[in-house]
UniProtKB/TrEMBL annotation:
Keywords: DNA-binding, Transcription, Transcription regulation. InterPro entries: HTH-type_LysR_regulators, LysR_HTH_N, LysR_subst-bd, WH-like_DNA-bd_sf, WH_DNA-bd_sf. GO terms for cellular component: cytosol. The lineage of its organism: Bacteria, Bacillati, Bacillota, Clostridia, Eubacteriales. This is LysR family transcriptional regulator. Pfam families: HTH_1 (PF00126), LysR_substrate (PF03466). Residues 1-58 form the HTH lysR-type domain. Belongs to the LysR transcriptional regulatory family. GO terms for molecular function: DNA binding; DNA-binding transcription factor activity. The keyword Transcription regulation applies. Gene3D superfamilies: Periplasmic binding protein-like II, Winged helix-like DNA-binding domain superfamily/Winged helix DNA-binding domain. PANTHER family: HTH-TYPE TRANSCRIPTIONAL REGULATOR BSDA, HTH-TYPE TRANSCRIPTIONAL REGULATOR YBHD.
Length: 289
């Protein structure tokens, strides 16, 4: 089994047809079918169920597809490492970011980094913190820009300064309009829109103040929370730096006075794994301490 065979196998799995895969690979169908046969004979398993027009992965094929993606990503990482040594600070940097990383924080840092290294290209992956951790472990990205809390056991981390949680309140729901802060107790009986991953933290904090929060909506994205709040459906609890991510013409923000409802942005990368000069310089220039 070699890398070329794995690429052939993945093309067939993705296209669902040997003919379509051959066309995608710019090769004739018979050699492709022959390579698939050799791979199945070597592994001693059937990778596809053949139909009249389509092929479908077997259970063994599904396992190989998952591993093949990881092997090819690792191969690409090795190629990048070798090229980094000869090319210096050139190439493409793959990073992941959460939506709540804050437009100002990211834009300013990325702009400054681009001025210093204008020959570098970027590949950006977006998702929640848990998605980015999975991409880091698989080697698809080198650096993740994530938000606490998360399990940092297997990662090197550099943190930005702590920031408070805020509430984004529809104007028609606003109370104490002149106050720019509020206490936890003031959220009692209010319809809350929260991050699913902050649910336990918010619930525990509210319970410590003698009430269970009324959670109207749970979501996984700062923009979603803000859009729902902007529509007047409830009060969003989000990190302060996430507020500028959406059109918020109908919202008033107030900082929550709580030592527990705080969070940080962090740059993380996998411990004891090669990190390219591109990624190392990005982390250094990102301004996280």
């Amino acid at each position: 089994m070699d890398i070329k065979q794995l690429k052939y196998f993945l093309a067939i799995a993705e296209e669902g047809q040997i003919t379509a895969a051959a066309k995608k690979l710019n090769m004739a169908q018979p050699p492709l079918s022959h390579q698939l046969k050799l791979l199945e004979e070597e592994l001693g398993v059937k990778l596809f169920e053949r139909g009249p027009r389509h092929v479908q992965l077997t259970d063994s094929g599904k396992i190989l597809m998952n591993r093949a993606h990881q092997i090819l990503e690792l191969t690409n990482s090795v190629v990048k490492e070798v090229k980094d040594l000869s090319n210096g600070l050139q190439g493409t940097l793959s990073i992941g970011t959460v939506s709540s990383s804050g437009a100002t924080l990211l834009n300013e840092r990325m702009s400054e980094f681009h001025k210093q290294y204008d020959n570098i290209k970027f590949e950006i992956f977006e998702g929640n913190t848990f998605t980015l951790i999975d991409l880091l472990n698989k080697g698809i990205i080198e650096v993740g820009i994530v938000r606490t809390p998360f399990n940092a056991l297997n990662f090197e981390c550099k943190y930005a300064k702590t920031e408070p949680m805020i509430v984004a309140i529809p104007k028609e729901m606003n109370w104490k309009s002149n106050n720019m802060t509020l206490s936890i107790r003031e959220l009692k009986n209010k319809p809350l829109i929260i991050y699913r991953r902050f649910e336990q933290l918010i619930c525990d904090t509210c319970m410590e103040h003698g009430f269970a929060p009324e959670i109207f909506c749970k979501c996984d994205d700062a923009r979603t929370a803000l859009l729902w709040a902007n529509a007047g459906t409830g009060i969003a609890i989000i990190p302060k730096s996430a507020f500028e991510l959406a059109a918020n013409s109908n919202l008033v923000i107030k900082e929550i006075k709580s030592e527990k409802l705080k969070t940080k942005i962090a740059a993380i990368w996998v411990k004891d794994r090669y990190i390219s000069p591109l990624a190392a310089n990005f982390i250094k220039s990102f301004g996280i301490v």
